[in-house]
Amino acid sequence: MAREGSKHGKGGRSVHSSTTSSPSTSAPSFPVHTFCGAMMEENMLDAEDIFTLWDPVGSSSAKMRPLFCGSRTEARRFLRAVDNLQRAMKFFAEDSSISGTAAIIRCQNLMQAAMRRLRREFHQILSAKRDTLDSESVSHNSSYSSLSDLENEDVSSPTESVGDLQRASDLRLIADSMISSGYGKECVDIYRLVRRSVVEEGLYKLGFDKSTPSQVQRRDWDLLENRIWNWVAASKVAVRVLFSGERVLCAQIFSSSSVRETVYAEIAAEAATRFFGFPELVVSKAKFSPEKIFRLLDIYETILDLLPDIESLFSYQSTSAVRSQVVASLLKVGEVVRFLFDELESSIQKEHSKEVISGGGLHPLARYVANYISLLADYSSTLEDVFAEHPVEMPAESLLEAGTFMSAPPSPSSRGGEGPLSTVSLRIGWLIFVLLCKLDTKAEHYGEPALGYLFLANNLHYIVSKVRRCKLSDLLGDDWMATHAARARRYGANYERLAWNDVLGAIPADLAAISEMDADEVALQMRRFNDSFAAACRRQASWVVTDRRMAEELKLSIAGKVISAYRPFYVRCRGEGSSGGAVRFAPEDLANYISDLFCAGTGSSVSSGSGSSKDASSRRCSKTV
């Protein structure tokens, strides 16, 4: 079967070509006893010609040219030669003669040369396609204006996620060829080396880097919060693009092999375990105060949202460590959230400052807690999951008995047909109850009971307004708001009664009795009213009502009571010539002074001048009795 020439002419081909892949420089003569034997020898010689041409060790031109390019004609011919060589090796393996052994050795050398080329092609294609999931594309995916933009992106399509169909097909064909030839380990090693670095680089570009427990402990809150924000923002891209893309790519390339599960686990499991271990590391090593609960809820909400995707992506037994880590992080974050909830209640109860708020205005504690719980309401569905297996421990009858949380058992009609209050509603309602109890204690520190009631009215009205303007209204219901709004009005009514009773008491209740008084008695009664009204205005000069509408309602109510009672008395006194000099305020003056109430900082003062409405109006903020 000697053949001459280097061309594939019809009459023969060279079997003396030199290659480093073969230990011999000339082909031995193999006895051909059957037609199959002749075909197998032909396969071996065809493979030798093709592999020699593309062996990167023996050919300088082969180092420069890619095998898988253009129409892929040469690539198909190369892979067909590998398949034929495998069949030849199986055939010669059954021949125990010396010639059969020599043929096997020669086939093995040729196969090594083929695998060298395929390893090179596999690595080149994988490296060239890093742009699918490398830093640039990850930055693109993380630069969407909102996460909903990412959800609208089709990341499930293999060709869109991991490269064009042709490249993925090339990688699959090479992998199939190497695995079937007994070089699966070499193929997997190359794939793992390249793709693992892609995953690491992708997570790094998303803002996630490796942190040790000591590093977390040393970070101040601003830096740690920024890391948490980065993790939350990166999670959806990491799960639905990075890890999902790797699983799709792995399934494509190793579609005909059982190794794809192991390969995916070796590429993604370690990085994913470390990524999803970050929340547990943070809550285990960092110190949290109640106001930091919101970042933890962001983490919990993110994990909860991605949990179905994670369970699907890491469903293999070999990736069970990832699922376990996700559950561990979720449980640990939930535990700290519940702890911080309790810490907030404890901090409210432990607030023992006796300092009073000037003018009966908003207490910082009321403002802090009201804003805190209004933000918590945005996480109501997340909190329901956090407290799903941790029901409210305080007995419901204690809430009803206190008369502050609810006036009646919850009804479907009061909450849009939702029925009884949820665990989160009860917990938030209990926090408000604890706050109101503390504010009751704060009100006792005011020397004047009227100012204490004004303080309670201000703070409760602020809380109700906060509830009404956010999702808390849905959580607590209409009954809750109506009950507490009515309580705030009662506080305002108590303020009116205590602050203005002396003024109303200075006005004779029986107008018929006034007609029987002599002029001196009428003048004395008028002076008593003047002093009482002036004292009330001076005393309340620095008192405040923080809500404008509530302030106007209180002033209208006060003016209605005082002026309606004063007007007949004023007319009677003006009719008495001898007692008319005792009149200092016309009804219009009273209206002006009352309208200037609750202006913190301006402190409306009462004039000592005549009763003229015009004169009183011009002097009421400049002189003091």
From TrEMBL:
User: Where is each Exocyst complex subunit Exo70 C-terminal domain found?
Assistant: 230-596
Q: Which domain of life is it from?
A: Eukaryota
Gene3D superfamilies the UniProt entry points to: Exocyst complex component Exo70
Tell me the InterPro entries matching this sequence. Answer: Cullin_repeat-like_dom_sf (IPR016159), Exo70 (IPR004140), Exo70_C (IPR046364)
Q: Keywords, A to Z?
A: Exocytosis, Protein transport, Transport
**Regions of compositional bias (Low complexity) in chain numbering:** 17-28, 136-148, 603-615
GO MF terms, alphabetically ordered = phosphatidylinositol-4,5-bisphosphate binding
User: Region (Disordered): which ranges?
Assistant: 1-28, 136-163, 603-625
Task: Please give a single GO biological process term from the UniProt record.
Answer: exocytosis
Q: Which family does it belong to?
A: Belongs to the EXO70 family.
What's the protein name? Exocyst subunit Exo70 family protein
Q: Which organism is it from?
A: Spirodela intermedia
